[in-house]
Description:
single chain, alpha+beta, 35% strand, globular
Amino acid sequence: MTDLRRRVLTALALDRTPGFTYSGNFLGVRFPSSTPDCVCVQMDEGDHCEDEHGQADIGAVSLLADVAMASVVRARLSPEQRLATVSLTLQFTGEPLVGALEGRGEFEAFIDGADSRQGLSRGSLTAGGRPVLFGSGAFMVMNPPPGRTMHPIVDAVHANVVPPGEQELEAHEREVLGRADRAIEAAAGARGFLKHFWGFLPVATPDGARCRTANGAHIGNRVGHMQGGLQIGMAIATAGAALPAGWAVSGISAWFMSPGEGDEIEANARVEHRGRNTAVVRTVITGVGGRRVLEAMSTHVRKA
């Protein structure tokens, strides 16, 4: 069994304990310290989370940033409550996404005078000790959907976990494993696995770019909708495909409209401006029935 396939199966074993998402379990997201004012997060380093260029996959980076900022708001709530991301802004420093990723979420405030309870936080990520992004977010406190029970989030530690045998897998677990096997074959190695696994494979269109991916447990949050940080990652990947080679994302601001539901999630990007050194791209993600899930504006810089 390859190390990557073992990780896929070990994450399925971890996923059987309620509290986290499959993507968080696969990436090995951990919380070495947590207070109501500051939460630190870490992610396993290795080929499993790298793109074909040897940098951290942008979906994994976006997920970790989202988790860091949401977790510090969640630290002030009871375990049975859940959060929905309202808005998220990330600003990249341009430092390479190479080395161990660590994040920090810091609580700001709850919005006064709102009918719903919304928490505000800021966050930062480092890679190999170098600052790679700064961000801010707003998160709405909600009750879980009917029939769903929320549980405290636990560390996704792979050490000493025995991966299940394939004959023991349930139908939804076999679906995740089958998708992983196809991604391993398509990536022809560990690096670049995640974009195939998550389906973040945008194609250029006459006026921008489009990306379609199957929805499911492999990209789901704790209530079965597409995870918010992965939506950001999908938007960044699609926006990047709308521009010629030689451009890099410098920042993104996103607004979440509705849950990421449906059998398929689609992102469509359109270039709003392209100058000599900067570009702006608008990306819309839709779900079931074409309903808007997320709308984002990203800025891009021409690489040196």
